[in-house]
Amino acid sequence: MNTPSIARRIPITTLERDAATLKFLNQTDANQYVLRTYRKGLKVKGLLVGDAGLRKKM
């Protein structure tokens, strides 16, 4: 979330956000600019990835 970009769209207002839920508390209109879809990560065949202290193959 790029908070300064969203703040420019909601002028003359101090935005209060909740980091845990990624939502603005005092301006619900600003929540429409928060994007939650991310691109799929890169996977490399044969690369070992750490998982809570365990290592597994992808």
Which short descriptors sum up this protein?
1 helix; 12% helix; 58 residues; elongated; 4 strands; two-stranded antiparallel sheet
Structure, explained:
- There is one protein chain.
- With 58 residues, the chain is α+β, with helices and mostly antiparallel strands.
- It has one domain (3-57).
- It is built from 1 helix and 4 strands.
- Strand 3 and strand 4 form a beta hairpin.
Helix content: 10-25%
Helical element count?
1
| Low-pLDDT stretches | none
Largest sheet: 2 strands, antiparallel
Mean pLDDT, as a whole number? 79
Compact overview of the structure:
By secondary structure, the protein is α+β, with helices and mostly antiparallel strands. The chain has one helix at 3-9; strands at residues 17-18, 23-24, 48-51, 54-57.
Fold topology:
Layout: H1 3-9, E1 17-18, E2 23-24, E3 48-51, E4 54-57
Antiparallel strand pairs: 1-2, 3-4
